[in-house]
Amino acid sequence: MNLISISNFFNYFFTEKSANNSIQRKVSKLKFLNQVVNVMLIVSLLGLSTSFLEPKNNIYVTFSFYIVIFSAIFLFKYVLKKSKIKAVSWALSLFFWFMVAFVTFFFGGLKGQNAIVFSAVLVFIGSVLGGRVALLAAIITIAWCSFLVYLEINNLLPNYIDPGYSPVNSWSAMSVTFGILSVLLYNLLKSIATSEERYRILFENNKDAITTTEPDATPNYTSANKSALKLFKINSEEEFINYSPVDLSPEFQPDGITSEEKRKLIAKIASEKGSHSFEWVHKKSTGEEFICQISLTFVEIEGVKIYQSTIQDITEQKLIHQAIKESEERFKGLSEASFEAIIIHRNGTIINHNQTFGKMINHDNDILVEKKLIDYLPFDDISKKEFIKHLENRNTEPYLIDAYRSNGQKWIAEVRGSYITYLGQEARVEAIRDVTEIKKAELIISQNAEILKNQNRQLIDFCNIVSHNLRGPLVNLSMLIDIIQDSNNENEKAMFIEKLKPVITLLNNTFEELVESIQIKNDAEVASEFVSFEEIMKKCLQLFEGEIIMSKATISCNFQEAPNIFFPTKYLESIFQNLFSNALKYKSNERSPVIEIETKIVAQNVILSVKDNGLGINLKKHGHNLFKIKKTFHDHPNAKGFGLYMTKTQVEALGGKIWVESEEGIGSTFYVEIQNHHFETNAYHFID
Amino acid sequence: MLKFKTIILKRMRTILLIDDDDIFLMLTKKIIENTSFVNQIHTCKNGKEAIELLSENLLNHKTLPEYIFLDINMPVLDGWGFLEEFNQLKTQYPIQVHIYLISSTISPYDLTRAKENRDVSDIFIKPISKDLFSQIFNKG
After folding, report:
1. Angstrom distance (rounded) from CA A118 to CA A178
2. From the list B75, B104, B107, which residue is nearest A475 (CB)?
3. What is the mean pLDDT of residues A224-232?
4. B135 CB neighbour count, 10 Å cutoff
5. Closest approach of chain A CAs to the CA of B139, in angstroms?
6. Which of A184, A456, B39, B58 is packed most tightly, with the most Cβ within 10 A?
7. How many CB atoms neighbour CB B56 within 10 A?
8. Cβ A479–B45 below 8 Å, yes or no?
């Protein structure tokens, strides 16, 4: 045995019983005892084998001795497995004592030095295991051994004890045994010291704060490492063990339970489960509170309950977590409040969506994660195909698509896709919005714009009427009056007075026509009724009978396809008369007129056509002016240029269209398209 | 000296009136005659007639008008149409010609268009007084 081992030995012997390594100490004791017993086994086996070399030995005595020893050793092994440290150490002490006594009395004693070695072993064992009582036993043993030595040296031992006869008197074997024992002891002490040191270093330098408590002994902490001191802002471990966990916590934990009560609750859970992890609010010595994650380990060794806590300050993590949670909630709130349905998906598999989408497809409470988006969209097959096309093209422009409610009602959806990075991977976001109302409003606006445009054009036409048709005669009147006033010649005066009359007549006629056309505009919702084209045609023929006979016109009618129309009679009559009179009026001088009148149904509307073989119109030159007021294209005496304007106004007032096909010198065909339905709203169509 | 002056003042002019309104033509003719600056007045009922008249008399310096008074709204060929066709005729036209638009238009569009047209000297709104004609002829 060298100096280090002795110093370790004494260190160990005199180490203060501090709480922080009590668990460790118990574990080392177990290990140590186990080794002692193993050494005993080896020694006993050596002793047994060497005893056969001694010719003086009585075989029965030797066997019975070793049977007792081996039985004891196996008994120790068994008890050690049960972790009964105190029992084993006492038994070991007693056993060695018994051995010494046995050997001394029955086999002639031990030589002095051997007795001392034995004593030292006993003292060692006793100190490690038994505390003060074991120490006492060891002192008694030493005293006994010294007494034996005294007897042996003074030859006072009884005669029947034959020193030459002993199962353990093979000195060489004894030396080897003790040699081994001492080496083992040395290693053992060293390993205990090292492992304890290692444990201490780990304990001290652990980044996590570690504390222990032994609630049966004291409510206070029994140890704390450097991190724990730093965490609680306490200078030394001595100071630290004056505090209890409750002292270093606020009165109440966040759930409203007092720290005292909660601590007991947690201690109970930990003692039942062996360990327990939980969140706790601690208080630093400065009074500052912080949230921590505590992992509590419970060990009970020889009835001593020890709790070891690993404390992690998670205030910052908690704050970050809180911030993330808040921002998540905020985002969720925004996305839930949105009128748009928002779906995040990857290749058509839903990752997430907001409630608005759920409502849109009547899946109010479900979140359709991992489902195929296409199965849940409120689209029919055509819309779905279109949607897939937009997906494939990675379209990020908004587009309109027809959608359907569960009751089959159609609505217009505006869909807009965009790409985001969701959890590190690309995902597509679809925002779907119901724009039915907006589109309706847009339609109304554009219709209104068209109406305004039309009215504006009509206003310009009116300007022209006023300027040309009314102002013209007025100008003439004023000029006539000037001349009449200036003239001295009575004959001349009479002649000019005569000229006044036709000017006034013209003025009056124009005025009447204007009033009529304004009437049409205001009568836009004049009552419609079912009218027979044939009857209208009959009236028209009667009206123009004289002209038809004079011009030898051939007239053919075909109203078979559309015999009736739902339209104001007055207007239809006017339209017929105008077109028919035009056809007669602008007849060619080279041929007698042929007029064909026909009705057809095209796309549910009735198209009336009036075809003539008259002068025809140069559409390139006059096409744009054709239906305007006072535009005549022929130097024809009866060309007033008002008829087509009136016809157009009448047709358009009821949502119809009018257009012409013509070739100069060959003839013209006028077409009137009339909407053949009950007029619920005014629809407007125009010719530009 | 006196005699010479009178000759200059009495210089006779040929003018062309184009308007579809018979009464207006008759009255205007009467007013212009009263100004006694003019010895020859032609009238046409529309642009087409006027173009035909001018083309026929291109070589006849004496009958070609120096002043053309043109209405805008007319059947067959209106004032604007006449100006377009006259533009092609202009290079062959032997004398300087002043074209005045005379219309009862109240459309600002017509006024702007008249000002933008280089061939149009000015636009007057009906009715036209004797004084206005005197001013026009004195300018020339």
Report:
1. 9
2. B104
3. 86
4. 10
5. 24
6. A184
7. 10
8. no
Residues with Cβ < 8 Å from A462, sequence gap 6 or more?
none
pLDDT tens, residue by residue, A330-359? 877 877 777 888 899 998 899 888 888 888
Please give the full DSSP string across A503-561, using - where no structure is assigned.
HHHHHHHHHHHHHHHHHHHHTTTPPPEEEEHHHHHHHHHHHTHHHHHHHT-EEEEE-SS
Task: Number of A to B CB contacts under 8 A, please give it.
Answer: 65
State the pLDDT confidence band at B7, using cuts at 50, 70 and 90: very low
CA-CA distance, A297 to A307, in Å (whole number)?
6
Give the total residue count for chain B. 140
Residues of B with CB under 8 A from a CB of A: 21, 23-24, 26-28, 30-31, 34, 45-46, 48, 73, 75-76, 103-107, 126-129
Query: Do residues B68 and B98 make contact, with C-beta atoms less than 8 angstroms apart?
Result: yes
Please state the φ and ψ torsions of residue A332, each to the nearest 5 degrees: -60, -45
pLDDT at A189: 63
CA geometry: angle A15, A16, A19, nearest 5 deg: 120
- Which of A16-20, A392-396, B34-38, B90-94 has the least mean pLDDT? A16-20
- Give the minimum alpha-carbon distance from A471 to chain B in angstroms, rounded to a whole number: 6
**pTM: predicted TM-score of the whole model, two decimal places:** 0.39
Q: And the tokens for A441?
A: 């409003």
> Cα distance from A616 to chain B (closest Cα, Å)?
13
Distance (Å) of CA A6 to CA A2, A42, A177, A189: 6, 24, 19, 9
Is the Cβ–Cβ distance between A454 and A649 less than 8 Å?
Answer: no
Q: Mind listing the pLDDT tens digit for each residue in A20-57? A: 455 556 666 777 777 777 777 777 777 777 667 666 66
At residue A68's C-alpha, the angle toward residues A66 and A72, to 5°, is: 115
Q: Is the CB of residue A303 less than 8 Å from the CB of residue A291?
A: no
Closest CA to A360 of A383, A344, A339, A390: A339
Tokens 């006779």 found at: B12
The mean pLDDT of A123-150, rounded to a whole number, is 58
Nearest one of B97, B82, B13 to B45, comparing CA atoms:
B82
Specify which residues A353 forms β-bridges with: A343
Judge contact between B106 and A463, C-beta under 8 A.
yes
Is residue B16 predicted with pLDDT exceeding 50? yes
What distance in Å separates residue B83's CA from the closest CA in chain A?
15
In DSSP notation, A277-338 reads EEEEEEE-TTS-EEEEEEEEEEEEETTEEEEEEEEEE-HHHHHHHHHHHHHHHHHHHHHHH-
